[in-house]
Structures are given as structure tokens and as C-alpha cells.
Amino acid sequence: MGIYRVVSLIFVWQLAASICYYAVFAATPFFRDQFALSGTAVGLVVTSLTLGYAVFLLPLGALTDRFGEHRTLTVGLLGLSVGSILVARAWSYSMLLVSAFLLGSLYGTAMPGTNKAIFDSTPPGRQNLAVGVKQVGVTAGSGASALLVTGIAGVLYWEAGFYVAAAGGLAVAAAFWLVYRGSGSREEASYPDFRRLLRNRPYRYLAAAGVCLGAGLFTTTGYTILYVDESVGASVAFGGIVLAALQTSGSAGRVVTGWLSDALPGDPRRRIGAILLVQSLASAALFVGVAFVEGRTLAAAAFVVLGFFVLGFTGVYYSCMATLVSAEEMGGATGGGQLALTSGALFAPPAFGYLSDAVGYRWSWLMLAALALVGSVFVVRVILTDPPEGVTAAAE
Question: Any idea where the Major facilitator superfamily (MFS) profile domain is (predicted)?
């Protein structure tokens, strides 16, 4: 298959999958109302979703190596569609948690499958751009889900957004199965050698930074609409627009910082690490700004600027990782890095919700600011610490 056809198919797959997955984040106000949830209980829905993703990420990556991305991506999107229907049909809070876990687990096919498709089918000189285009499908899908769920809820009912997402996922899964061919390459199923990676000090620091920054990323996505509704005093529909704008800004941040990573001079590790440091510090400052800003217009503007940094750092995060590990370790390092990001989403959303209930949203946002500052300390350690001797970085 031609490169443009492969990238287009993978982008559409990623878009459909992200709409199904991120619809859960957009529906948090409706979960709260339907099941009479506290802020902490809402956070546990996000935790259940990301826990499913974290638990199944590595096993599904191994299955992708064994059976190929054609099968795993098709089955994954079918499962995401079914999971969306289960979330919409959940009759109790416990069933909602189980459905969210199942939905998150099938999203674990996304990163290993789409990355394998890109790197197996795209020439080296165009791989980074192709990955960047594919990653825009994540934020585009999240933004689309926000508009879909909140928009349809105002006309019909919130569950209708999940049904539309499921129908779109089923259609894309069928088209992907029929059209996609890929390289057909398969490998033995294997798991990363984390013991070797953990001996790499700057990689450990970067993973620790990922936990802190991932906490801010997923919590912001999960609570933006609720915050706009409860604290700013705007409608849920307006909150959906703010979340969509936040995601659009995050897409721009990924593209701009990716370009800067290539264009700026200097040692790659220090150059890219410095960009990640700026993103971490800016995220901390903007979390403080969101905590104190008042009014619909100022709050919306603050979230848009925040999105550029807190949602736009992931590309630079992985680019920095490529300066710390060898090409042979990059697959395992990526899996570990993604687990670090997701781990932040296991504790931060419930803590954010608890603080919002106990002392108000201001302290919740300040908690995320503190985590971003801690993350920036780890990024500084990445910049100052050389990789182990004998490691030829994947990105020079």
C-alpha cells in the first residue's frame, strides 16, 4: 500500500478509536447526575478506564507482534464499539466501572498497532511526520467526542453520543479490515526487558516525570466539562466546546514542539529536554491561572492556552526518550513510558475530585500545578544525567 493510503487509514482508525475512548471523559457530568456521584466517584470512572488501558497495553502489544496489526486493530475497534454501547447501557455505578474498564482495555490495541503500521509501511525519512499525523487523531477524536456527547445530549439524551460513536467505530472497523493490507510482517510475541531499562538513570527520571505530567493530562481531560459546569457556571454544552478547543490547542502544541525539536540546534537530549521542561513549567503556571481565573471568557481562554502545553507534551516526551535509549530498546521504552503516563491517571482524578468536594476546585488545580512542578524537577535530572555508557541513542 502507498504511504498516503496507509497514513490516511491509520489516522481514520485512530480518530474513530479515540472518539469511543474519550467519550467517557466528555460524559462525566452525565454520569454524575444519573448515578448521583461525588467528585471522587467521578474520578474513579476515569481511573477504571485508564486502569483497563494500563493492564492490557503490554499483552496487546505482544499480540500485535505475534498476529499483526491488521487483526488486532480490527478486533480492537470492534471491541471499543461494543464497550461504548456497554457504557451507555450501564444500569448501575458498578456496571459503569466495569464497562469503562473493558472499554479502556480494548484501547490498548491503539498505540502498538498504529505505531507498527506506521513504522512497517513508511520510509524512515517520513516516519516522524506520519506518527505526528496519526497522533493528531487522538486529540481530534477527543475533541470530536466532547462535541458529540454534549451536543447530542442537548437534543436527545447523553447515551445517544455513545451509540453514534459505536456505529462509527463499527463502520471504520469493517472498512479497515477490507482495505488495509500493511506489510504483513510478524514477530515473536515478547515483553520489554524493564530491568535493563531501569538501569538507565535518565530513562527512570523521564518515566517519573511522565507519571506527574500524565496526571495533569488525563485529569484535565476528565474534569474540564465538570469544572466549567459547576465552578464557572456555564452550560455542559459550553464545557464541551471548551474541551474541544483544549484538544485542538493540544494538537497544535504537538506539531509546533515537534518542529522545534527538529529545528533547534544543540545536543538532542538537552535540546528536546529543554522543550519538555518549558512545557512542564508552563503547565504548572497555567494550572495556577485556571485555579484563580473567573468568568466564562477568561476561563475558556485559560484552558485553550493550557491545552497547548499540558496536552501538547507527549510528542516531545517520546522524542526525548529516543535520545536516552537504543533503537533496539525503543519499543520497550515506549511501552514503559506509556505506562508511566497512564499511572498518573490512576490516582490523580479521584484525588482531584476529592479535593473539589472537600475544599473546592481551586485546590484541585493547585494539586496538578504541584505535580507539574515535581515533573519539571525530574526533567531537569534527565537533561543533566548522561545515559549509560555503550548506549547508542535511537535519535542522534
Answer: 1-387
Question: Which CATH superfamily includes the segment(s) 193-396?
Answer: MFS general substrate transporter like domains (1.20.1250.20)
Q: How far is CA 284 from CA 81, 99, 287, 291, 374, in A?
A: 36, 33, 5, 11, 9
**Same fold: 1-180 with 193-396:** yes
| Distant-in-sequence, close-in-space partners of 144: CB < 8 Å, separation ≥ 6 | 15, 18, 19, 244
Q: What is the pTM of this model?
A: 0.81
Domain boundaries, the chain: 1-180, 193-396
pLDDT-wise least confident of 67-71, 135-139, 185-189, 209-213: 185-189
Give the C-alpha separation, 293 to 280, whole Å.
20
In this structure, is the dihedral angle defined by the CA atoms of residues 103, 106, 108 and 112, taken in order, positive or negative?
negative
pLDDT of 394 reads 47
